[in-house]
Amino acid sequence: MTKWVCCLAFLVCVNQAIEGQDRPDVLVGEVLSAIGLTTADLSLRGDYLLDPDRLPITRALLESPLDARQIVDGLGLNVEAISSVVGLNMGIRYLGWGEGETGRQNREPIPLPGLSEPLRLVLAPLVWELAICRMRIETEFGLCVGQDRNRLTGLLSVVDPERQLSEWGVDSLLGIARAVGKEPFAEGAKQVLVARDRFLRQVVLLPEGVFPNTPITISTLAGQVVVGSLGNDRYENYAALIVDPGGNDVYVGVGGVTSASVPVSLCLDLAGADVYTGAQGLGLMGVGIVTDLAGNDRYQADRAGQGSGLLGVGILEDRGGDDVYHGGLGVQGFGLFGIGLLVEYGGNDRYEADLLGQGAAGPGGIGLLFEVSGDDVYEAGGRYRDFRESGAYFQSMSQGFGLGIRPIASGGLGVLVDAEGGDTYRVGYFGQGGSHWAGTGILLDRSGDDFYEARRYAQGCGSHLAVGLLFDEAGDDAYLLWGVGQGCGHDLSLGCLFDRSGNDRYRATWLAQGAGHANGIGWLDDGEGADQYQAERGDTQGFGSSSRDYGSLGLLIDRGGADLYSGQKHEGRLWEKGDSGVGLDAPLKPTH
Length: 592
Hints:
Blueprint: H1 3-19, H2 24-33, H3 56-63, H4 68-73, H5 84-95, H6 117-141, H7 146-152, H8 167-179, H9 183-203, E1 216-220, E2 223-227, E3 234-235, E4 241-244, E5 250-252, E6 255-257, E7 264-269, E8 275-277, E9 280-284, E10 287-292, E11 298-305, E12 308-310, E13 313-318, E14 324-331, E15 334-336, E16 339-344, E17 350-357, E18 360-361, E19 366-371, E20 377-380, E21 395-398, E22 401-403, E23 413-418, E24 424-426, E25 429-431, E26 434-436, E27 440-445, E28 451-458, E29 461-463, E30 467-472, E31 478-485, E32 488-490, E33 494-499, E34 505-508, E35 510-512, E36 515-517, E37 521-526, E38 532-535, E39 543-544, E40 553-558, E41 564-565, E42 574-577, E43 581-585
Parallel strand pairs: 2-4, 3-5, 4-7, 5-8, 6-9, 7-10, 8-11, 9-12, 10-13, 11-14, 12-15, 13-16, 14-17, 15-18, 16-19, 17-20, 18-22, 19-23, 20-24, 21-25, 22-26, 23-27, 24-28, 25-28, 26-29, 27-30, 28-31, 29-32, 30-33, 31-34, 31-35, 32-36, 33-37, 34-38, 36-39, 37-40, 38-41, 40-43
Antiparallel strand pairs: 1-2, 42-43
Helix pairs in contact: 1-2, 5-9, 6-9
């Protein structure tokens, strides 16, 4: 068979595969065959690390990248399904937490003196549920010796770049955290959310005038219960429950924040433009939940909060308004041996974080940020400088990011989901569907014309036995990156950027746009649309290099549309780059 006939046969096979895009693995298989590979070669070992923090989802994605889209779809993160309960159940499932006993204790009368009878009747069952959750958590931590329990209050230091802990100190603290049973957090948080939702359905049916004129504090089995007024109230003391019916209120470090004396804390703000400072929605060795129903709110958390679970469950749920979130380290949906969840139901919101935020996780944790709608802005970085490059470049590790602690603990699962709106994403080093050291990071944007900007290790980038995925489902999007991303796998890692539709623009300098390096797999897959690919170096746009006597794999596939490639003539062609890199611009055109 002549070379021309072989090329024609390959063209026919590839174009047939394109027509059946409901089976993208067929097209991928045909493209891989051009460099002598099969879909079986599109795989990495997931068992290089066997530490107890290694998540099954990370291993599954490494071993079967072709299933990445199916696995992400299997997370069930559709617009209609987004809620705190869904996020909590997802965290429990992927962390493998048990939920303990499901039997319910007989309720005892909860005296709530000073409240109107209608309010007392709907509030008492919620207080009882908080008391049960508190009892479970205190029983579990009663098994810890005092010294260990005190050390656990500093758990965030294991991921703090400015920490003073030695490697032995970090390893020791991780061991203590692993040994604590997670069942009280899982079952307790689920039951509290159920009771919260029941209360919120009932409270709107109450007659006017049931709330007090000034805040009332009541001692209960759950701890302090505070019921606010319709005026502008200020809260400064830890409480098991704060219920505020309205007004522009201020919460100073106590909005759904746990402490040594308050292991479960729920804050419900029913209306008003509120200000939260210090921390909010922080479950440190406990369950901390804040739910704000309406108003243009402002959230400030200097160190952990805004939906952070540190050996516990932390949830922040905001159901309306144009809100602003500013945080430091471990914020806006962050988990470390716990589940951190931030759920935003609407509005044009702004998120700012220094490090490890906006859907990020450390070992043993899951961090989730769910944004339902609005034109939102996500920015991360600005405090912690990165050592790899001179100049004002900062680490971000945010916007769907999983971080491990090299070499002693695999990273967790960080997820950011934005369902609707034209959004802006900015990070420095690490983020936007990225991961470092055996974790998994996922950024999923379902619609809108979006803008992504990063410096390095971002936009679908896994580094060091890790997985980084960026999925954009629709819209005319722009991706701007300096290097190492836009579908890049570095050092036995997987990095994927999948953009399903729209007229998209990709710009990068090096090791990007479907690049595999140091035995990694990098994959950029673009669906329909007239796209532009700009790259300055040759190690881009379907590039793979050999390392340690073994190959890497870079894969770029554009499935349709009139596209441009940095002045190169890739339109309608198949090309090879490096030792094991391949690109395809479909549909293929005959060559003579």
